[in-house]
């Protein structure tokens, strides 16, 4: 059983590293388009600080979880997440969704229309 577990562990690592290599290659060659990743999709606003903070919190949260997973000792099970971490991730997503809701409502009711250059009513 130990040999099967070791073989499966190596196979999973091989699969994950292979997927990461394919994604990294496609990012470098431009097949995955990241040109307007941080731009607002509604209105004529350009850069979106909400998208930037959500990206930073998501990447930071994933790295924190990986750190917890690699530092664990004992039986092989997934680490428990602290409540504060979950609250911070929820607040980050709520901030992004609130900004998105504001953008959609402002566009619908004309607060950010292209007639006035997005400067309000």
Break the fold down into its secondary structure elements and pairings:
Elements: H1 2-29, H2 49-71, H3 83-109
Short description:
By secondary structure, the protein is mostly helical. 64% of the residues lie in helices and 0% in strands.
Your description of this structure?
The protein is mainly alpha-helical and 121 residues long. The protein folds into two domains: 1-35; 37-121, no CATH class. The chain contains three helices and no strands. The protein is flat.
Tags for this model:
121 residues, 2 domains, 3 helices, flat
Number of helices: 3
> Mind telling me the C-alpha Rg?
21 Å
> What structural category arises from helix and sheet content?
mainly alpha
In helices, the fraction of residues equals: 55-70%
């Amino acid at each position: 059983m130990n040999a099967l577990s070791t073989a499966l562990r190596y196979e999973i690592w091989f699969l994950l590293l292979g997927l990461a290599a394919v994604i990294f290659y496609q990012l470098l060659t431009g097949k995955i388009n990241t040109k307007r990743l941080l731009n607002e999709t509604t209105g004529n606003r350009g850069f979106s600080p909400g998208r930037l903070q959500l990206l930073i919190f998501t990447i930071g949260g994933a790295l924190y979880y990986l750190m917890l997973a690699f530092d664990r000792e004992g039986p092989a099970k997934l680490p428990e997440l602290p409540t504060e971490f979950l609250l911070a991730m929820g607040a980050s997503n709520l901030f992004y969704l609130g900004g998105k809701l504001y953008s959609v409502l402002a566009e619908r009711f004309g607060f950010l229309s292209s007639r006035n250059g997005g400067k309000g009513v």
